[in-house]
Amino acid sequence: MSGVPGEFASVRKLLLGRMDGLTPGERKVARALLAQYPTVGLTTAAQLAAAADVSAPTVIRFATRLGFEGFPGLQRALLHELHSEGGSPLVQYEEKPPAYPQGILRGTRQAFVDMIDASYDGIPESEFSALVDLLSDTSRAVCLVGGRFSHVLADYLLLHLRLLRTGVRMVGEDEADRLVAVADAGTQSVFVMFDYRRYTDANLRLAQAVSRRGATVALMTDNWLSPIAKVSKVVLPCRVQSASPFDSLVVAMAVTESLVAGVAGALGEGGRARLTLIESVSLDD
């Protein structure tokens, strides 16, 4: 017996399946646990609370809401999972990059396919749908922010969103641009932050500043979770491991494409009408 409530095969799958029913504080606990899974769940309730930036009672309520007999019940399920999977080739594969006897091209192709599958399985549908809803709400102003490499993802999303709706802008690295973005931020603002490991301190400060002004922060990050997660209402994590010395944005780009598809579908005829208008506009007299 795994000790996991319901029909879920693991605590991880339980968290992903129940994310939508958690309170904002409990959702922070779930994200912290997923980011350092399962080890942080095997510490004390106070330590998990510190990792999630919530109170210890919130951690206990979180465990109970999931159906466990308190925090000890959650830990027993995690220990059972750890002992059951400790020798799994899949777990070792994730911890240690595999060799590619079939060659780099074919080997990395399969590695990226596996990464996409694992990442999409790890994204709660409720979180994805929430971000699509935010980006499709044309009453909201959308600001996109990237990092050293991830700015290409922000740029890519910008190029598509502005074809489908108005009120989308990029926030650059320039300090004046960021100060204006903070001044303009309010309850009808959505800031989509792309932040992957070797996280950007400047982006964290920006996210904290706009959050204090009432803006909704949505985070695109890796499976370890950027510190921006602590002020984010929506978090979409994905894997970034690569065969090269550099982290990969392959999965992050795929998730960005999924967001574009979701927004296009949600806007429907409105998005189509805007695209038609843009293509019909002429700059000639």
TrEMBL record:
Pfam families: HTH_6, SIS. This is DNA-binding MurR/RpiR family transcriptional regulator. It comes from Streptomyces iranensis. PROSITE patterns: HTH_RPIR. Keywords: DNA-binding, Transcription, Transcription regulation. SUPFAM superfamilies: Homeodomain-like (SSF46689), SIS domain (SSF53697). The lineage of its organism: Bacteria, Bacillati, Actinomycetota, Actinomycetes, Kitasatosporales. Residues 9-85 form the HTH rpiR-type domain. One of its GO terms (biological process) is carbohydrate derivative metabolic process. GO terms for molecular function: carbohydrate derivative binding; DNA binding; DNA-binding transcription factor activity.
